[in-house]
Amino acid sequence: MGRAPSAQVHLAVRDLAVGYPGRAVLAGVTFSAAPGERIGLVGENGTGKTTLLRVLAGDLPATSGEVRVSGSVAVVAQDLDVPSGATVGDVVAEALAGPRALLAELEEATADLDRIARGAGDDADDADAARHAAQRRLAEALGAAERASVWDADRRADEALTRFGAPRDVLRALETLSVGERYRVRRAGRSAERAAVLL
Fold first, then answer.
1. Total-model pTM
2. Concatenated DSSP letters for 126-176?
3. 90 in the Ramachandran plot: left (φ > 0), alpha (ψ -120 to 50) or beta?
4. I need a surface site. Which of 13, 180, 183, 197 has the fewest CB within 10 A?
């Protein structure tokens, strides 16, 4: 973990320290992760691995130092709570909630512009201002949808399940899976989110 942050990074940590009253857990942690780069965190129990991940995820404040993240962070939690009746499909749906919300916003913005265009008999100045606002909303929604590749989200989720060796049957109950299979399903779901940083 001794690399200095580079110009194009998704995650940069500089001189990070974390401690609890009377006990330093981490000190002088510096590293960066470029797009596509993988970093393994190895150490004995109690050496601060989980603490570091919690700081990177934003769940725990650092005592000092800096953490910079470009883009979103997705976390595959170590604790795998299994709600009764939850399925593989529920995990996939949770992972794709963001892209699906962007797609819904795009559809609403399109419908809004359509509605305004059909109301041509309205006051010209008001109609013009409303049309410009609706066009701006549509352009923003389209840009966000394109950046998130919303039209590809379901395919990405299916590919991630396959890549991680997770069950692909969306109706399969999580409680019927082994702990390892559940973890792979959740990891695939988080991977399909396309977050800049996956912890």
1. 0.71
2. HHHHHHHHHHHHHHHHHHHHHHTTGGGHHHHHHHHHHHTT----TTSBGGG
3. alpha
4. 180
- Strands (E) across 43-151 are located at 64-69, 73-74
What token pair was written down for 107? 């559809």
CB 28 within 8 A of CB 15: yes
Pull the structure tokens for residue 27. Answer: 């000190």
Q: Is the pLDDT of residue 33 over 70?
A: yes
| pLDDT tens-digit map of 3-13 | 344 446 688 99
Q: Distance (Å, rounded) from C-alpha 101 to C-alpha 144?
A: 11
Confidence (pLDDT) at 163: 94
The set of residues, in sequence order, having a beta carbon less than 8 Å from that of 188 and lying 6+ positions away, is 95, 157, 160, 161, 163, 164, 166
**% of the chain exceeding 70 in pLDDT:** 93
- Across the range 94-107, mean pLDDT stands at 91
What distance in Å separates the CA atoms of residue 187 and residue 78, rounded to the nearest whole number? 11
- Tell me the pLDDT of the chain averaged across its residues: 87
Tally of helices (H runs) and strands (E runs) in the chain: 6, 5
